[in-house]
Amino acid sequence: QRIGLAKAWITGQPPGRVFLSVYDVTDLRRLETIRKDFVANVSHELRTPMTMIRAMAETLQDEAKPEDELANRYLPRIIGEIDRLSMISHDLLQLSKAESNPVEKQTCDLAAVVREAVDHLHERAVEKGLALSYEGLPLLVVQADPTQMSQIAINLVENAINYTTAGSVVASVREEPEFAVFEVKDTGLGIAIEHHRRVFERFYRIDKGRSRTTGGTGLGLSIVKHIAEAHGGSVSLDSTLNEGSTFAVRIPIGE
Ligand code: ADP
C-alpha cells in the first residue's frame, strides 16, 4: 500500500524523543476519486432530462393563452429555475474535471485567450452600460490548457461585469520574471477583507440574495483557483468594498 502522507513533530518530551505519526491516506484518496467521479457523472446525467423539461416547459409557455393566468405566471419561473440548475450542473462538471483530469499543457497565447473572452462578453457589458476593454501585451505564450485558460478568463470577466454597476472592467496580461499574469480589474461592488479567502470556496457567496439575482452558482472562483493551482500557479485578490476588485492569476511561464 502506498503511504501518501507522513507527518512528524516533536512534542514536549525529553530531548531526543521524537514521535512520528504516519497516516495511510490511500482510502481517503480512493474516496475522494469516487466523490469526484460521482459529481461528474451526476452533473452529466442531469443534462438530458433538464434539456427535455426545458423544451416541454417552453412548448407549454408558447401555447399558453393570455387568460391562462397560472401558466403565464409559473412557466417563466420554471424555465428560469431550470436554467439555474443547468448552470449549476455545468459549473460542477467544470470543477470536477479541473479537479480530477491531469492538465493537458500545450503552447497557448494567453493574450489571445483573454481577448476572446472580452469579445465574447462585450455585449453583456454594453447592456449594463459598462466599458469593457483589453489592455495588455499583444502576445503572451504559456504552456497551459487553452480550454481551461478560457474558463478562467470567462469566469473572471463575467464576475467583474456581474458585480459592477457603473464604470469599467479592464482585462490585461503582462509578464513577470517567472509568471504570465492575467488580471481583471473592475470598479464594482468590491469585497470586504473578511471574505477575501472564502470567496474561493465552493458555493461561497457574500450576499446570497445579490448573487442569486446575478444568476451565479458560487462555483466560478473555486474553478478559477483549481485551474490556476493545477497549472502550478495561483490566484490573488485585491479589493476594497465599494471601490472595486482586481483578480490576478499567475501561470508559470515555460513549464
Ligand atoms: P458566483 O457564481 O456567485 O459569482 P463565484 O465563485 O464566481 O460565484 O464568486 C463568489 C462570490 O464572490 C460571488 O457570489 C460574489 O459575492 C463575490 N465576487 C466574485 N467576483 C466579484 C467581483 N468582481 N466583485 C465583487 N464581488 C465578487
Account of the 3D structure:
GO terms for molecular function: ATP binding; phosphoprotein phosphatase activity; phosphorelay sensor kinase activity. It is found in: Cell membrane; Membrane raft. Its EC number is 2.7.13.3. It catalyses: ATP + protein L-histidine = ADP + protein N-phospho-L-histidine. The chain starts with a strand and ends with a strand. It has helices at 26-63, 69-100, 110-127, 146-162, 208-214, 220-230; strands at 5-9, 19-23, 106-109, 131-134, 141-144, 168-175, 179-186, 234-240, 244-252. It contains six helices and nine strands; from the N terminus they run E-E-H-H-E-H-E-E-H-E-E-H-H-E-E. A hairpin with a 3-residue loop joins strand 6 (168-175) and strand 7. Mean pLDDT is 89; it is low at 1-10. The strands form three sheets. The chain has a five-stranded mixed sheet with strand order 4-6-7-9-8, covered by helices on one side. The protein has a two-stranded antiparallel ribbon with strand order 1-2. The chain has a two-stranded antiparallel ribbon with strand order 3-5. The structure holds adenosine-5'-diphosphate. Adenosine-5'-diphosphate (ADP) is lined by residues 159-160, 163, 186, 188-191, 199, 204-207, 211, 216-222, 245.
Q: How many helices in DSSP terms? A: 6
* Strands ordered across the widest β-sheet: 4-6-7-9-8
Give average pLDDT, whole number: 89
Helix content percent band: 40-55%
Measured between the Cα atoms of the first and last residue, the distance is 31 Å
Question: Structural class of the secondary structure composition?
Answer: alpha+beta
Q: What is the count of β-strands?
A: 9
Uncertain regions spanning at least 5 consecutive residues: 1-10
N-to-C SSE string, H for helix and E for strand: EEHHEHEEHEEHHEE
* Basic shape: globular
- What can be said about the biggest beta sheet? 5 strands, mixed
Beta-strand level of the residues, as a percent range?
15-25%
Bound molecules: adenosine-5'-diphosphate
